[in-house]
Amino acid sequence: MLHQQTIDLMQGMKLFGMAKAFADQIHQPHVSELSHTDIVGLLVQEERTYRDNRRLAKLMRAAKFKYPTAAIEDVNYRHPRGLNKQAFLQVTDTQWIVHHRPVLITGPTGIGKSWLACSLGTLGARNGFTAAYLRAPRLMETLHEARGDGSHLKMLHKLAKIHVLVLDDFLMSPLSEEARQDTLEIIEDRYAAGATVITSQYHTDDWYERIGEPTLADAICDRLIHNAYKFPLKGESIRKDQNEKSEGAKS
Fold first, then answer.
1. Residues 202, 169: Cα–Cα separation, whole Å
2. Looking at residue 33, what is its pLDDT?
3. Cα angle vertex 52, ends 46, 54, to 5°?
4. 196-227 burial string, b = 16+ CB within 10 Å, else e?
5. Could you tell me if 179 and 76 lie in one domain?
6. Do 104 and 220 belong to one domain?
7. Same structural domain for residues 71 and 165?
8. What pLDDT does residue 36 have?
9. Quick one: 98 and 125 in the same domain?
């Protein structure tokens, strides 16, 4: 009965991880061999693990990654797409996030740009940083609608506060004047304040022309490109290769 009272007290104090660990421990025969210090240490560690897992789950739900299971540890360096392993290893820790540096991943469709970008986003979430995945065309549409309902500035402020922002399919279509302005505001707000991961089918050398208006193109490219980690990819579509292998296995 005393054990159940202890568990109830822990749960009442929202020590759910500790309560579960305590409930598990009282049924383990080796617990009597542990010192009080060891038992308390184990309970505290379980509570910490429980809270870390809850926070990660919350961060991942909020991020809405296209590939939520993408992980840095699973990056395929063998596929002939021009991904330099030594260069990419520079972004497999969180220093690029801490120092607010952009990561630019370019290349043809199906080459794995979005997956790589999501793996960097999940790296941030796993280390306690807030993250968000957004397709750039859809974001521009949402910001356009936000101008009409008065939530435009609020949305820009929200984007500015995200630690790791993944913008997929950047410059897929030409930018309108309004979209150029919004893009500059997002990049300006995040410059030296947040880490931004961008994927695009167009090489960074072509961004100036794709953006259009010279003054805004200068401002956007200057803030994005000069201090960025750049990963230009090339080669055959991984997605196509996987589909062909799948079809071959069925035949």
1. 9
2. 67
3. 105
4. bbbbbbeebeebeebbeeeebbebbbebbeee
5. yes
6. yes
7. yes
8. 67
9. yes
* Tens of pLDDT, residues 11-25: 887 877 777 777 777
pLDDT of the residue at 9: 79
Query: Which parts of the chain have pLDDT scores under 50?
Result: 1, 244-251
Per DSSP (E only), the strands in 136-242 are: 164-168, 195-200, 229-232
Number of domains in the chain: 2
pLDDT for 251 equals 42
Are 57 and 93 contained in the same domain?
no
State which residues form the domain around 203: 64-242
Same domain, 29 and 142: no
Give 37-45's long-range contacts (Cβ < 8 A, gap of 24+).
43/18, 44/18
The strand pair at 103-106 and 195-200 is best described as: parallel
- pLDDT of the residue at 246: 47
In this prediction the pTM is 0.80
Coil vs helix vs strand at 113: helix
- For residue 241, give both structure tokens: 């290769």
Q: Tell me the residue type at 231.
A: F
Length of the chain: 251
Neighbouring residues of 237: CB distance < 8 A, sequence distance ≥ 6:
108, 109, 110, 111
Q: How far apart are CA 192 and CA 102, in angstroms?
A: 9
In angstroms, the CA 116 to CA 154 distance is 29
